[in-house]
């Protein structure tokens, strides 16, 4: 029988489901996932459906989690805006804040944050960004969540770790904030329409330096943070440790999908993709696709990603020094994710 009992808060998200995958791969874990909906992927985790914005409902449904030893938090209320403070803090209060007082064996809480901690959403900021960088002018819900967590932990035996990825890349159906889905859908449409694969952002964005985070790598790193004694009460940046410029990987993405080469041609994806639902439905029927990636893509999120004209570079030295050495090449990250989308029939494996 497993003696480690994990609760994954936000288990249906792109981070949460890859934490679950990492836990299942290691074995020896009992896993409970908290979300409003049942998982739409195969898992042995026990699904507990709960509205974590409802305090009374959370207290009632989470009362059975007294044996919890580890909590992995990756939930999100509403959009990604840093100003969305109240609901995102309430999610922490109504999950960690409910479970921790009733779980005497709790050892570690791993809280997901991100590049917005350093102000990457505001414009040009200090790079490389390191874990000890000062906070920017609020609001920023990451700050309030972290402050709430440290209040819960004060005087207790359990500890926490803070993980800060950048844009997360992985296969996850139904997840709008995915650094690969909008690329795959857009490239597939360009190939099907026989139009060039233009880069939709400005030249400065095409040449800016980025580091993204592979979802599988992130899941494994969070498991490491949860179980390594040296990670107690520490924050860790977590990216692929391989930077890229769109100018280097964009032609490779186009070639992967069989697209005509494009140029830098700024346009709003939110506007141009808003009427492409019928086209995607036609593609799904034509290629017998099962996973509807278009339906969940946030094109405004894509516009933000492609519109960043400044470098965003989280420094990974600390987590490597502490013992998590795994890295991934940026192009391999994209290619492997596209391959997984093909295997799960989210994009065509070959064009007709």
Structural description of this entry:
- This protein is an alpha/beta fold and 352 residues long.
- The chain folds into two domains: 4-167 and 212-238, Rossmann fold (3-Layer(aba) Sandwich), CATH 3.40.50.720; 170-211 and 243-312 and 328-343, no CATH class.
- 38% of the residues lie in helices and 14% in strands.
- It is built from 14 helices and eleven strands.
- The chain has helices spanning 14-26, 55-61, 85-93, 96-99, 141-153, 181-193, 203-207, 215-227, 246-257, 269-272, 277-287, 299-307, 317-322, 330-343, and strands spanning 4-9, 29-35, 46-49, 70-73, 108-112, 159-165, 168-169, 196-199, 213-214, 234-238, 260-264.
- The strands form three sheets. A seven-stranded parallel beta sheet has the order 3-2-1-4-5-6-10, with helices on both faces.
- Helix 1 links the parallel strand 1 (4-9) and strand 2.
- The model has no long low-confidence stretch (mean pLDDT 96).
